[in-house]
């Protein structure tokens, strides 16, 4: 009795015996090997390319002969002439198994293509999106067996792809018949299949093989900015990323002021809903133009946002989120039609998925961070802080995860700061103050040189030095503390107290002068006492939220800290620690995860299994409501000191012993009549 040939697939290692003449694609499907095919084995999509290996494979215990696969056929010849096959490649749907063989499936031929995240983790995004393309041959109409075109399309999809049921709206039906006939009853369909629904929706249809692409938008809808990643739903590649200011800022800089606007102005919520939807349409159009794709090829959007933005996006008045018990209209995830949200800049039949919220003040953005950073799978105790206008904080390990939201306000993003601005070319993003001379040196966005280096003036001539952004103001306040120009209470000393004329009187307090370009008609950039107060309030809220979670876990320290958010990626861990933004840990245990909420949105866009996972995860997270926790105020007051009134910060002392100075502007005298005390530490 002859034994059927053995086939071994790499990198999966799956193996099995198949009759002589079995196509490689058929063997792959029967073994569950990750080998792509859109055309269903017709040799026209080229997704199923494979590389056979020849020679001895001791690891697999087989020797592969040169004639292990059938010879090239006309289909492969034609494809190679038209588009070209890499040397050694075959089409899996055409190559037949004749003898024992080892088959390598290259990354570009795998369905679940791996997209390696560039920040925080080498974890991969497995491609299994809700929206996919299928090439199908539809039975032609027959007078003796009268059926509709949609019904025959459904029958063919079930036969060729195992799709059990489909539905289509009337706008799709109106183009179905002409497209079928133009393609001679061979068409490509875009199908959306939710993880919560067995019926697939037909989103679009093209004659023949559609090769212009399939795209989705992962959108992080923040209080201050709206960020979007245009993602290829076949490869997972981010084709373009872009952002736009949230126009709702004109109704209030923070979330509660927007809730107040809705309370005080009848119809105010509808104004804010329209504003944000218009902005998303603008952003979608711009990002499609940047990537040079047609906007109607965007078939799906995934949103992550805080609860107030969640309600305003959906057209729900957020008034209940402004008062205890902070009830959400719904906390579950939602799958909608994009047109329900007036998203008109993309495909009219596009679908939208919104991640679940965790609690009244802990939103889908925090859920997205949990999906991206997976604190519930951490062996050590991790504190994850998504720094923004509202800070989302997660604390957890394999045993338990807690979450809260802290109202930090917009100071960390350069707002409410006298010389503050958004992160843009010309903004000071980093600063150092010499502890001896008290002189500053700084770096601006758009120039790699420091201000005391040759060529700095020339390289910044176009942008100028325009202001200071969030990371810059954090470093400036921390540097003032390290240089002994500001005491732990946040007071800047006078010129006499500090020994530098850069400490200038301003009313009853003092400011520190970083850069003065008034002689050339430019700005005068200072750090004022008001700026420091705004940063103190923001960092105190952040630290108090973290301490509250630590109290709930019964711990005084964490093992590591992850700074998330686009802004978090640019914070210097040392300066954040000096400021007392985060709990004391060794500096090498502070890492950046970049825009983790945006990454979580992209994971949910690219993988429907991740959607089911986060829906389950949020139900297991313990929610802590900072607004009603009595200890929050105690932690907040103690955290006003820089770095902290009572917490010792031993790790910080090893790397940055802080001068023990105290400035007392007795009676508010700005002329320097106060006392300066130095204590030996």
TrEMBL record:
BP terms from Gene Ontology: methylation
MF term (GO), any: methyltransferase activity
Positions of the UniProt region annotated as Disordered: 660-681
A Pfam family hit: Raco_middle
Residue ranges annotated for the RACo linker region domain, each copy included: 121-211
Swiss-Prot/TrEMBL keywords: Methyltransferase, Transferase
Residue ranges annotated for the RACo C-terminal domain, each copy included: 381-652
RACo-like middle region domain span: 215-372
Database matches in InterPro entries: 2Fe-2S_ferredoxin-like_sf, 2Fe-2S_ferredoxin-type, Beta-grasp_dom_sf, Corrinoid_activation_enz, Raco-like_middle, Raco-like_middle_sf, RACo_C, RACo_linker
Protein name: Drug:proton antiporter
Top-level taxonomy: Bacteria, Pseudomonadati, Pseudomonadota, Alphaproteobacteria, Rhodobacterales
């Amino acid at each position: 009795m002859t034994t059927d040939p053995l086939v071994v697939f790499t990198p999966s290692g799956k193996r099995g015996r198949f009759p002589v003449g079995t196509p490689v694609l058929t063997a792959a499907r029967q073994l569950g090997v990750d080998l792509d095919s859109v055309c269903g084995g017709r040799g026209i999509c080229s997704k199923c390319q494979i590389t056979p290996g020849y020679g001895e494979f001791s690891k697999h215990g087989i020797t592969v002969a040169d004639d292990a696969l059938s010879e090239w056929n006309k289909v492969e010849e034609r494809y190679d002439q038209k588009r070209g096959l890499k040397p050694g490649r075959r089409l899996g749907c055409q190559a037949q198994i004749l003898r024992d063989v080892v088959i390598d499936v290259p990354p570009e031929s795998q369905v679940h293509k791996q997209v390696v995240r560039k920040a925080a983790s080498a974890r991969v995004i497995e491609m299994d999106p809700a929206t996919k393309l299928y090439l199908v041959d539809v039975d032609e109409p027959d007078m003796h067996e009268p059926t509709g075109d949609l019904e025959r399309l459904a029958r063919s999809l079930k036969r060729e792809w195992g799709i059990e049921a489909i539905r289509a709206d009337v706008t799709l039906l109106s183009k179905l018949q002409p497209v079928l006939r133009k393609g001679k009853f061979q068409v490509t369909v875009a199908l959306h299949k939710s993880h919560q629904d067995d019926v697939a929706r037909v989103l679009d249809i093209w004659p023949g093989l559609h090769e212009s692409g399939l795209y989705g938008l992962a959108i992080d809808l923040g209080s201050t900015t709206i960020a979007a990643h245009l993602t290829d739903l076949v490869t997972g590649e981010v084709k373009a990323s872009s952002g736009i200011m949230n126009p709702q800022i004109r109704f209030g800089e923070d979330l509660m002021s927007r809730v107040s606007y809705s309370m005080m102005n009848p119809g105010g919520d509808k104004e804010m809903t329209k504003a944000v939807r218009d902005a998303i349409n603008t952003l979608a159009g711009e990002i499609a133009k940047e990537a040079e794709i047609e906007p109607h090829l965007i078939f799906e959007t995934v949103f992550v946002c805080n609860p107030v933005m969640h309600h305003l996006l959906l057209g729900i008045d957020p008034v209940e989120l402004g008062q205890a018990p902070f009830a959400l209209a719904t906390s579950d995830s939602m799958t909608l039609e994009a047109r329900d949200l007036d998203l008109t800049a993309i495909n009219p039949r596009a679908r939208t998925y919104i991640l679940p919220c965790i609690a009244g003040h802990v939103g889908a953005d925090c859920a997205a961070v949990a999906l991206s950073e997976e604190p519930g799978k951490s062996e050590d105790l991790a504190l994850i802080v998504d720094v923004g206008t509202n800070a989302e904080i997660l604390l957890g390990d394999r045993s338990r995860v807690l979450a809260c939201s802290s109202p930090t306000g917009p100071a960390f993003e350069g707002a409410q700061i006298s010389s503050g601005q958004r992160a843009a070319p010309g903004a000071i993003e980093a600063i150092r103050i010499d502890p001896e001379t008290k002189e500053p040196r700084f770096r601006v966005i758009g120039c790699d040189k420091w201000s005391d280096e040759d060529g700095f003036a020339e390289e910044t001539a176009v942008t100028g030095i325009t202001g200071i952004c969030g990371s810059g103001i954090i470093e400036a306040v921390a540097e003032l503390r390290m240089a002994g120009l500001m005491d732990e209470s946040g007071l800047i000393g006078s010129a006499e107290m500090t020994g530098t004329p850069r400490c200038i009187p301003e009313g009853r307090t003092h400011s520190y002068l970083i850069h003065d370009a008034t002689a050339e008609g430019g700005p005068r950039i200072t750090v004022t006492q008001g700026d420091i107060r705004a940063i103190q309030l923001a960092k105190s809220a952040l630290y108090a939220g973290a301490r509250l979670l630590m109290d709930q876990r019964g711990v005084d320290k964490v093992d590591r800290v992850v700074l998330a958010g686009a802004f978090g990626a640019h914070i210097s861990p040392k300066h954040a620690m000096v400021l007392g933004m985060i709990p004391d840990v060794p500096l090498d245990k502070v890492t950046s995860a970049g825009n983790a909420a945006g990454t979580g949105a992209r994971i949910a866009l690219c993988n429907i299994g991740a959607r089911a996972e986060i829906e389950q995860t949020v139900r297991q997270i313990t929610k802590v409501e900072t607004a009603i926790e009595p200890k929050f105020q105690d932690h907040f007051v103690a955290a006003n000191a820089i770095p902290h009134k009572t917490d010792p910060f031993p790790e910080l002392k090893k790397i940055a012993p802080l001068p023990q100075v105290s400035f007392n502007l007795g009676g508010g005298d700005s002329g320097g009549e106060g006392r300066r005390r130095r204590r030996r530490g």
